[in-house]
Amino acid sequence: MSHPTENELLEYAEGQGDPVRRARVKAHLAQCGACSGLVGAAFSDPGALPTGSGGSLVGQKLGDYVVDEEIGHGGMGIVYRGRQPVIGKTVAIKVLRPEVAAEDPQLVERLLAEARAVNAIGHRGIVDIFGFGETPQGQHYIVMEYLVGETLTALLAAKGRLSPYEAITVLEGFLGALGSAHAAGVVHRDLKPSNLFLVHQPDGARLVKLLDFGLARNAEGGGPRTAPGVTIGTPDYMAPEQVRSSAVGPRADLYSVGVIAFSC
Questions:
Q1: Would you call 122 exposed, middle or buried from its count of C-beta atoms within 10 A (0-12, 13-18, 19+)?
Q2: What is the rounded CA–CA span in Å between residue 68 and residue 82?
Q3: Where are the beta strands (DSSP E) in the chain?
Q4: What is the pLDDT of residue 179?
């Protein structure tokens, strides 16, 4: 499986959460030193997980951008709000955790693959990425557009379920972007509600943005490599062939769309 989110690791450390998900996290911890180290820190210091960055990059300048504040974090990285001081443009900066990158060097490749895939597609329904670099501490990062709104995960948590009309509106909102990705030969491989962002527009409407192409793969075989028999993605939303670590194409993404529709 891919690296668990920090919330999943925290659930595991506290003995909470869905038993099936806990079993998957346990299996992952058995082979990932970085994540097992985070869980070990949580056992020894209940306030250690999630930790974020401790503000270590806040105030620093990364390329043309100044880091203002941490706005999110997960199992693999930390997201900051930054700005271009000359023109005042606000951006989001996703930084890989150094301990996780050291454990899995392919994460840097996946970060680059995400930037390349997004720029190859060039659709307004996909979050724009326009920078890649390395911090003075050796952490790799990408610079992308700053979005104001909520993920589909947050919306479903607040509402429980959507009306048929609202669900169809959300699905239509990202299927165009997904179709453009497939037309460009890119398979996302990790479609799920947390990777669908509902952007708040000035007129009150919502624009759906497709996020996180870090696991994307070119239909001809380009993209981040995985060892034979290794399954990547989020199991609850994966097509059977992806669970079996077989070759996947656009139909695997459409299977995930169906699960998302059911979730709505």
A1: exposed
A2: 5
A3: 61-62, 65-73, 77-84, 89-96, 129-134, 140-145, 149-151, 186-187, 196-200, 206-210, 217-218
A4: 94
Angle between helices 164-183 and 106-121 (to 10 degrees): 100
| Secondary structure element (H or E) that encloses residue 260, with its range | helix 250-263
User: For residue 41, what is the enclosing H or E element?
Assistant: helix 33-44
Task: Indicate if 236 belongs to the active site.
Answer: no
Mean pLDDT by 10 residues, the chain (264 residues): 61 59 73 62 43 64 93 79 93 84 74 81 89 86 92 92 93 93 89 92 86 69 45 77 86 95 95
Domain boundaries, the chain: 6-48, 61-145, 149-263
The amino acid at residue 63 is G
What CATH number labels 61-145?
3.30.200.20
**CATH number belonging to domain 149-263:** 1.10.510.10
Quote the pLDDT of residue 91. 96
Give pLDDT, residue 192: 93
pTM of this structure: 0.69
Contact status, residue 21 vs residue 2, Cβ threshold 8 Å: no
Which residue type sits at 151?
A: T
pLDDT computed for residue 139 by the predictor = 85
In this chain, the answer to whether the domains covering 61-145 and 149-263 adopt an identical fold is: no
Of residues 64, 128, 190, 203, which has the active-site annotation? 190
